[in-house]
Amino acid sequence: MQEVIAVKKKSLMIGFIVTFIAMLAVLSFVIYMSVTPDGWRTLGWMFYLVDALIFSVGIAIGVLCIVMIVRLCRLPDVIAERQGDELVFLGQRCKFSEILDVDYRHARGRYGMQSWGKLTVRIKDGRMFSSDFVADIAHVQDRLVRLMFEYSAKDAD
Q1: What is the pTM of this model?
Q2: CA 157 to each of CA 84, 101, 114, 137: distance values in angstroms, whole numbers, following the listed order
Q3: Which of 4, 9, 20, 155 has its CA 20 to 30 A from that of 71?
Q4: Mind listing the pLDDT tens digit for each residue in 86-112?
Q5: What is the pLDDT of residues 4-30, one digit of tens each?
């Protein structure tokens, strides 16, 4: 029996791409205002400092967006699935009865916690599986814990 337990949050890609495009627009405006004769040159040296600050923050946010887009592209759509009595987590296998702990952390946003986050599964032999950008993280953790207890009880009998 095969059951998909955890998938990647797909809407994050759109958010990072929109943020990257917005940063490109801001950087284009800053560059335009810096090089045109009627731009910030007439306002004095203080605006060059503001210009440099806005430009460096824009570059940092743009690089962060590119890093996140690359991480999201490399992550498969299905993060964790059940195949019989085994958990397949990003290609690594373990039995549900071998799971020691399932932990999760919500992503925190400006207006509270998001529905996605980081999932960490610890195995009794010392291995640890972890993934960011897991959709509906609380439900995924609950399902994994229920499967862990179900198969641990079956192995105890």
Answers
A1: 0.77
A2: 18, 21, 39, 31
A3: 4
A4: 999 999 999 998 999 999 988 876 676
A5: 999 999 888 998 999 999 999 988 888
